């Protein structure tokens, strides 16, 4: 099945999110290895976009909920086992 956002086809999940948001995902999540200056510029641009589009956070939540509903396997998470005792007992003396 083909998915279209407006007149553009979303080929991948990344395309779908970018077309739905109207901005690249990297604008919101950043990229690995970005400098402090790049991060500051990215966050400044994101603030400007949010100021111009006050409804965007609601749209993002709706899109995220739709993604969870459409692709539940992407969000199958296995909880890690938590240790019952965080502090190990300190034993003195020689091992037997």
| Widest β-sheet, arrangement of strands | 1-2
Average pLDDT over all residues: 78
Strand content: 5-15%
The number of distinct β-strands equals 2
| Structural shape | extended
Tell me the Rg in angstroms.
22 Å
Q: By helix and strand content, what is the structural category?
A: mainly alpha
- Percent helix, as a range, is 40-55%
End-to-end Cα distance: 67 Å
How is the main sheet built?
2 strands, antiparallel
N-to-C SSE series?
EEHHHH
Low-confidence stretches: none
Helix run count: 4
Can you offer a commentary on this structure?
There is one protein chain. This protein is mostly helical and 96 residues long. 48% of the residues lie in helices and 6% in strands. The longest helix has 17 residues, at 36-52. The mean pLDDT is 78.
For this entry, give a set of tags:
96 residues; mainly alpha; two-stranded antiparallel ribbon; 4 helices; 48% helix
Please write out the topology:
Blueprint: E1 3-5, E2 8-10, H1 13-21, H2 25-29, H3 36-52, H4 56-70
Antiparallel strand pairs: 1-2
């Amino acid at each position: 099945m083909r998915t279209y956002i407006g007149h553009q086809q979303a080929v991948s999940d990344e395309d779908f999110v970018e077309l739905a948001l109207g901005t690249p995902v990297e604008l919101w999540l950043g990229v690995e290895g970005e400098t402090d200056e790049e991060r500051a510029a990215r966050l400044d641009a994101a603030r400007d976009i949010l100021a111009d589009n006050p409804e965007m956070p609601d749209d993002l939540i709706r899109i995220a909920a739709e993604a969870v509903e459409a692709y539940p396997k992407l969000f199958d998470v296995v909880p890690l086992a938590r240790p019952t005792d965080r502090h190990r007992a300190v034993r003195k003396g020689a091992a037997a």
